[in-house]
Predict the structure of NADH-quinone oxidoreductase subunit N.
Amino acid sequence: MTLHTAVLHGPHATAPNVTAQGAHDLVHSGHALVHSAAAQGTQGAQGVHQLVQNVDWAAIAPPAIVAVAALVVLLADLFLTERRKSLLGPLSAVALALAALSLLPLVGEDRHTFCLTAGPRACSYVADPFALSLQLLVLGGALVTALLSMTPVRQERLPAGEFWFLLLSSASGAALLPASRDLATLVVALEVASLPAFALVGLRRGQRLSSEAALKFFLSSVAATAVMLLGVSFVYAATGSMHLETIAEALPRVDSRLGTLAATGVALTLVGFAFKTAAAPFHFWVPDTYVGAPVPVAAYLSVVGKAAGFSGLILVTVRAFPSYADAWGPVLAVLAALTMSVGNLGALRQRTDRAHGAVRLLAWSSVGQAGYLLVPIAAAGVAGQDGRAVGATVAYALMYAVVNLGAFAVVAAHRPPGKDGRLDDYRGLARTHPWAAAALAFFLLCLAGLPPGIVGLFAKVTVFSAAVDAGLGWLAVVMAVNVVIALVYYLTWTALLFRPSARQPAGAGTAPAPVAIPLPLTVTVALTSVLALATSGAPQLLLRFADLALF
């Protein structure tokens, strides 16, 4: 009793008379305090453990392999002699091939990583069918670009280390973007894909066209990024979240006082992505940028850069802003009609004797193709057919990637030395390089949607049916008119390939000796030709994406 009293009142306190029952109750209270402190300690330990999560390295392998390869190339460039720097090209191609192969273990799975450890489940990285499809397009397109670049890098004496590092860095960002599921990761991935591309465009130092193209590309992209970041900040302020799924749930319940802020954020974010996809009227940078860039870089921008932009646009519209579909659906439909019309009319105006006419025609053609790619996304907003509409866009993008890279490969392989790439320079190509002329003709027919380019025809039908099913009959009519306009310039270039050149009159008996094509360019043309033929013979290989539930 004396000890108990000393504990309560101090060692020199006077001990009052305490009953035995009171002492017993006090002991029990002490035990309860000890158990409560232990429970709080256990909960604190669990809270610490909740902050720790496992990283799914297999899921993030595709962009991670490319990023690591970029660092390896950058370091190797410091130690290799000038003669051995030619090894950087094959090393980059092998890394891109390994990254593409790392997609195989992920097929048929839906894997998440970098997820929130508390509250509603939301992840920053998701390897679902949509992400894997676009990553296949990005890594495959980057691999073809690497094969296409080996000869021009040597012939134009581009700095090899910088070129391959920038290409791999851009490809890693483009591969990360389709799997991103929060706005911060989306913006970072898009900028990682874009910033190295500025330098790639201006890598031909001392050339006025290259410097102008890089500056125009840089200024337009920076403006788009500024607008996009402002929109993202507004959306975050209104919803309190960066994750796409959480934003989709929060936007319909936004406080009425923040409704204008949320709507403005959605609009600005979509405008930023419209710049990245080269949708009219935000397309002005495309022709001059493609002309000033090395041909492989122009091919890369037309396929991989476009895929990155459309990946982001699909994710923010379909996954983050479905509650605003009644607004962005009709707007994208109008943008699609405007983009395909401006692109095809711009390509139709190209003269056969204009400098850089071949690349400029392909540049305007890529703007028109962007209009077709926008149609299914607009249909998704109008009719709410998210899965099928997005699948139609992915199927068309895969077809476009194969045949457009093939067309750029033939242009790069047969650009006469000392010439500036006029369409007339490809006149009579069938007499000097019949197989290359046949390949280019086939690629152009695929882009036009004419047999034997069956894959192009079916891809256009898939996009056309998406517009009709969504009730966008007027957009289907506009698309049909633009397909007819595109036939004119595609068939004009195709006919030039089989006409005798000015240096070889029609009555001449012997064709001039053909110029040897370097092996990397030959492999690139052959690879894209085989892929285009395979998909035309079995178009279901690509069109199956139109029927898949990609999300």
Observations:
- The radius of gyration is 30 Å.
